[in-house]
From TrEMBL:
Belongs to the glycosyl hydrolase 100 family. It comes from the Eukaryota. Keywords: Carbohydrate metabolism, Glycosidase, Hydrolase. GO terms for molecular function: endo-alpha-N-acetylgalactosaminidase activity; sucrose alpha-glucosidase activity. This is Alkaline/neutral invertase. Invertase that cleaves sucrose into glucose and fructose. SUPFAM superfamilies: Six-hairpin glycosidases. It catalyses: Hydrolysis of terminal non-reducing beta-D-fructofuranoside residues in beta-D-fructofuranosides. PANTHER family: ALKALINE_NEUTRAL INVERTASE D-RELATED (PTHR31916:SF15), PTHR31916. GO terms for biological process: sucrose catabolic process. The keyword Kinase does not apply. It is an enzyme of class 3 (hydrolase). The keyword Ribonucleoprotein does not apply.
């Protein structure tokens, strides 16, 4: 599912981390290096603003989206992507604790992918894409929803799993993406390692 810039949270967070790494490795003592640094800094600011503003979901933001007006088309529009409030899945209201939040899977015109993706959220914390407040909110959400996200096994890569015929539409009928398999809610031990790093 493509977002406004074509990429879900995992790709955006990894790209942000790559830009920050490149910035620390560049020589800034010549004109070419300075120009490259300026371009990276500009991109980092734009990307962090976009992600922190439009991909972030907490209890307050969920309430705001629920009250969005549709068909707004100006630079002053609150509902920038014309998200239809009825597109909010029912499970989000039960999943979202009053204290906590996370970066949603993706944003596209008229629709948001509200699923939780462990890798994107963990990398957002490690790369400083998430603000300190957002980082704490992500960890608060994991703690509040421990049974759903971790339970008896390693951290689930996404939550909830896509069910029924929707998984065929979204994943292209790939058998490794059936409910609770691989990308569709499955557990990735590597993500648990990222969680351990963040909590220590």
């Amino acid at each position: 599912m493509l977002g406004i810039y074509g990429y879900p949270i995992e790709i955006q967070a990894l790209f942000f981390m790559a830009l920050r790494s490149a910035l620390s490795m560049l020589k800034q003592d010549d004109a070419e290096g300075k120009e490259c640094v300026e371009r990276i800094v500009k991109r980092l600011h734009a990307l962090s603003y976009h992600m922190r503003s439009y991909f972030w979901l907490d209890f307050q933001q969920l309430n705001d989206i629920y009250r969005y007006k549709t068909e707004e088309y100006s630079h002053t529009a609150v509902n920038k992507f014309n998200v239809i409030p009825d597109s909010i899945p029912d499970w989000v209201f039960e999943f979202m604790p009053t204290r906590g939040g996370y970066f949603i899977g993706n944003v596209s015109p008229a629709r948001m992918d509200f699923r939780w993706f462990a890798l994107g959220n963990c990398v957002a914390i490690l790369s400083s894409l998430a603000t300190p407040e957002q980082s704490m909110a992500i960890m608060d959400l994991i703690e509040a929803r421990w049974d759903e996200l971790v339970g008896e096994m390693p951290l689930k890569i996404s939550y909830p799993a896509i069910e029924s015929h929707e998984w065929r539409i979204v994943t292209g009928c790939d058998p490794k993406n059936t409910r609770w398999s691989y990308h569709n809610g499955g557990s990735w031990p590597g993500s648990s390692f990222l969680l351990i790093i963040q909590t220590s």
